[in-house]
Structure formats: structure tokens, C-alpha cells
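Structure first, sequence second, as always.
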């Protein structure tokens, strides 16, 4: 019988820390993979899908920042940084590297697993975060960076995918343009409000090709955008 547990890639070169993390993840129902270097992690990610990456910044062969940059060229998989330099990471989380969260060492295993669940729930990845709109209207295969609408897979550019994934994860929730820029763009500071609007327009055009009469992305004037709650 295939293993349906969400796979979590742990990239940590200190065995005591890695063993504590993998044990905690197994206990909470995840399937952890442990790698000790950035290159090993990138090779693993190129070969198999994972639900989330727990990534130490201080790796022996390359910086965790560099690993995240390389990773973001291939995938939108969620990333949680582990670091002893919380102030430095706090300035970059959600910005050009596209990390989803961070934990400063030392941390409790319970806090880490709670953060993993929260990120998976927020990003709509894994069985622990089944999207409310996945009832035949939407389907988000985060491991393959693929979103289906009414049974048809959408052909999406990277930023279109990231933008739509945020909306699909929380139908009915209104996201500001700033929130969408932070989630979808590698450098949100360089994006403009009209850039989000342009991508929303492109998404709507692709959705109309599948269901001409539907308009699933709702504009909230002065606030932002939300995905229509469909049943």
C-alpha cells in the first residue's frame, strides 16, 4: 500500500538536531527525508516531490539561502528556515527568497511540527491541508505545482501558479495586492499593484476558456482579490 503521508525534506548537517526533527515529524504523521548538504537536497528535490522543506541556513557546502534560491527556480514548495540568526532571516522571510517561515535555534520539536502544519494548511499542500474548494471545482497538486479547474489542468506561468495557489488555499478570504505580491513574486518590492492586476486578468482569461459563464476570482475594490466560494 503506498505511503500517503506528506513527505518533509529535512536539510540539516548536525545529526542530533536532524534526528530530533525527523523523530518529531514521524510522530506527527509525516514522512521525513534527511539530507546533510545543500547539493544532496537539490538532487533529491529534482528526483521526487515533497510537501515541504525544513532548511538549515548554515550548511557545510553552501548557504541555505543559496539552496532556497536554486529551489525557487524549480518549485514553489514551501520552505521553513532553521537558523541561529533570527534577526537576519526575519528581514528576508517572504521577500526575494520566497521562504514561508523560520525558526531560530534552539527550538522545540513541538513548535516545529506546529509550524509545518500551519504552513501546509496556509499553502494548501498535503492531506493535512485539503483546500475547501477541492470539491470538484478546484484541485491543487502542490507537489507537481499543478492546479486543475473543473477537471482541466491549467497551463500557468510561475507567478500565475503562485498567485492562484494562494487564492485556492483560502476560498472567500480577501488578499491584498501586497499579500499576493509577497506570495507570488521573488522580489515583491519590485512588483507593482498593476502587475498583480495584469496577472489576475491573465488568470481570468484562462479560467473563462474552461467555464465562460463563471467568474471565480472576485475583485474587492480598494481591498484586493478573493476566490469565490463554490459548491
Amino acid at each position: 500500500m503506498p505511503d500517503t503521508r506528506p513527505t518533509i525534506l529535512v536539510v540539516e548537517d548536525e545529526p542530533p538536531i536532524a534526528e530530533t526533527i525527523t523523530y518529531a515529524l514521524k510522530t506527527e504523521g509525516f514522512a521525513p527525508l534527511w539530507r546533510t548538504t545543500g547539493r544532496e537536497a537539490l538532487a533529491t528535490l529534482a528526483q521526487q516531490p515533497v510537501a515541504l522543506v525544513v532548511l538549515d541556513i548554515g550548511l557545510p557546502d553552501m548557504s541555505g539561502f543559496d539552496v532556497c534560491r536554486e529551489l525557487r527556480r524549480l518549485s514553489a514548495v514551501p520552505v521553513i528556515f532553521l537558523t541561529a540568526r533570527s534577526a537576519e532571516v526575519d528581514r528576508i522571510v517572504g521577500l526575494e527568497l520566497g521562504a514561508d517561515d523560520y525558526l531560530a535555534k534552539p527550538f522545540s520539536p513541538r513548535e516545529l511540527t506546529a509550524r509545518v502544519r500551519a504552513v501546509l494548511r496556509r499553502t494548501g499542500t498535503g492531506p493535512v491541508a485539503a483546500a475547501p474548494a477541492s470539491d470538484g471545482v478546484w484541485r491543487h497538486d502542490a507537489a507537481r505545482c499543478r492546479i486543475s479547474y473543473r477537471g482541466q489542468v491549467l497551463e500557468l506561468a510561475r507567478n500565475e501558479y503562485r498567485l492562484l495557489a494562494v487564492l485556492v488555499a483560502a476560498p472567500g478570504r480577501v488578499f491584498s495586492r501586497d499579500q499576493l505580491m509577497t506570495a507570488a513574486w521573488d522580489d515583491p518590492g519590485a512588483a507593482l499593484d498593476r502587475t498583480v492586476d495584469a496577472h489576475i486578468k491573465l488568470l481570468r482569461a484562462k479560467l473563462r476558456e474552461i467555464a465562460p459563464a463563471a467568474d471565480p476570482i472576485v475583485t474587492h475594490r480598494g481591498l484586493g482579490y478573493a476566490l469565490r466560494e463554490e459548491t
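Margin note: The chain has eight helices and ten strands.
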